[in-house]
Amino acid sequence: MIISVSRRTDIPAFYSDWFFNRLKEGYVYVRNPFNRKQVSKINLNPEVVDCFVFWTKDPLPMMKRLDELKDYCYYFQFTLTPYRRDIETNIRKKRDIIKTFKQLSNIIGKEKVIWRYDPIFINEFYNKEYHYEWFERFAYELSNYTEKCVISFIDLYKKTLRNTKHLNIEELKDEDIFQIAEKFSSVAQKYNIKIETCSESIDLTQYGIKKGKCINDKLISRILGCQLDVKKDNTQREVCGCVKSIDIGEYNTCKHNCLYCYANFNYKQVDEKYKKHLRNSPLLVGELYGDEKITVREMKSIKCDNNGHMEQLKLDI
To answer: How is residue 259 annotated by DSSP?
Structure first.
């Protein structure tokens, strides 16, 4: 099984001690985002966890402990964007994040560090020219430290409109997207970086940009050195290309407080949940109340043997 760590929050940046404690214990509890009384128990045994996919803007807090992942396959989705602290209110300086990106790449290999430049939005200050300049700066810096850049264009969900209303974000027309895609593509080719989109319906293949998979079975197969048997994740949006995974994060727990974020939009709730976090708890936030129904999630490897057959190993804990 593939474990997503996490679309919902930045576990590497803020909860890495908790994560490594869960590896030692061999399991994690995950609350249903829509029903706190429903809790899943997820096995973290390396025999059934085929890959961890880490999503982060700053993995520095877990860098010194990567050796604890020696029994696991993993890679990082590493977001690096040009926004200032008026947008990304709790991110370290760009030069320091770039340094961390390079260090991580040197440790685990550039194929395992995917650069994310998303979401892309434009307004009076963060206009197209601003993005062109910064995309090339980043591409220059990261050209020897990554193979791929994932881009997406902002979706203004109802729950994030309150936080972004004052930004006067412009509606992106297809013409705008085509212009950005063409410019980014030419820059990426210059620095030998492949671009893919994340959850975008628009066709950018004319610029050499294909639709991507952030939870990517082909990359995981490459890292593991074997074929996989895994289907598209039908719990994600139709335009999302990701394959099935289990996410162990929780919404409204990320302290980066980026204004555009759809997963962490209530800053008061973020602060309250962060205060309840216990590094030794099986839950990311707080502890069990005692009235929950805990369901053991069936886990099985998605790796195929040399003959292309599924490995039948299953573990329940």
So the answer is: T
Number of CB atoms found within 10 A of residue 70's CB: 7
CA 299 to chain centre: 22
Q: b/e map of 280-303 (b: 16 or more CB within 10 Å)?
A: ebbbbbeeeeeebeeeeeebbbbb
Q: Give the pair of three-digit tokens for residue 38.
A: 């429903």
Residue whose tokens read 């602060």 = 271
Contacts with 254 (C-beta within 8 Å, 6 or more apart), sequence order: 8, 9, 10, 13, 14, 261, 263, 264, 270
Largest CA distance in the chain: 57
Instruction: Count helices and strands (H / E) in the chain.
Output: 8, 13
All residue ranges of the chain with pLDDT < 70 are 306-317
| Global pTM value | 0.94
User: Where are the domains positioned within the chain?
Assistant: 2-315
Q: Which residues contact 47 (CB under 8 A, 6 or more apart)?
A: 301, 313, 315
Q: What is the dihedral of CA 129, 139, 111, 251, to 10 degrees?
A: -40
- Count CB atoms within 10 A of the CB of residue 65: 13
- Nearest by Cα to 108 from 57, 145, 139, 149: 145
**Closest Cα to residue 145, out of 95, 102, 207, 205?**
102
Cα gap 58→284, rounded to integer Å? 18
Burial-class residue 262 by CB neighbours within 10 Å (0-12, 13-18, 19+).
middle
Dist CA 58 CA 141 (whole Å): 17
Measured CA to CA, the distance from residue 299 to residue 195 in angstroms comes to: 33
The four Cα atoms 224, 230, 232, 234 give a dihedral, to 10 degrees, of -130
Residue-wise pLDDT for 202-226, tens only, equals 999 999 999 999 999 999 999 999 9
